[in-house]
Amino acid sequence: DFHETPGVIRYVAANYPTDPDTRLERVRESSERLAANEEFADFRDTPGIFKQAALQSPNDPEMFMTRIRDSMTRLSEDERFSEFRDTPYILRKAVLICPSDPAQFLIHAQESIARLSIDNRFEEFRNTPGVFRKAVVSHPNNTEEYLVQAQDTIARLSADERFAEFRNTPNVFREAALDHSDPDEYLTRLRQRRSPIGKHTQGISCASDHDDLQVPRR
Question: What angle, 0 to 180 degrees and rounded to 10, lies between the N-to-C axes of helices 88-97 and 61-77?
Fold first, then answer.
């Protein structure tokens, strides 16, 4: 249940060392209950948030989810942040990472996105502004370092003969570098799915890297 959210396991191990198994079972039960609740159906595509609610508010995870939902609604109605209405994951990140002042988090994100978009080092990403949004929100403390590393990874993958078939679709390299912790493995599996043999291979999946536990700022 927790292989895609290792942060939950780390959190429980650190905070409940005497009986982590019982705590994990309670988290599982609460997260399943939240996922089944139609009131929170909009969050089912990011099930990690249910686990976080169960961890951070074990006595009333429903109230935690209600606060998250209400804060996201308020932010989405704020004209200052209209550019983020089509990317609700950014609003969700703001509320989870900086619950005391998510608006300030978004203002900082806007400023960082604007700065990065005119930085000539990252000119290759200007036609895909979602890259800047993702970098700023997912790596607020080391955004530039993250983008430089992504550029290096994209260049390495595009020069790798194993992945020559993807050179006419550079967005594949971009996705591998930005969205996957092991881009080589992701591309290898993608090749298998596209190959005649891979088409008959079952059970291949790539875990998302964006559903880990978020630690809110105080």
Answer: 120
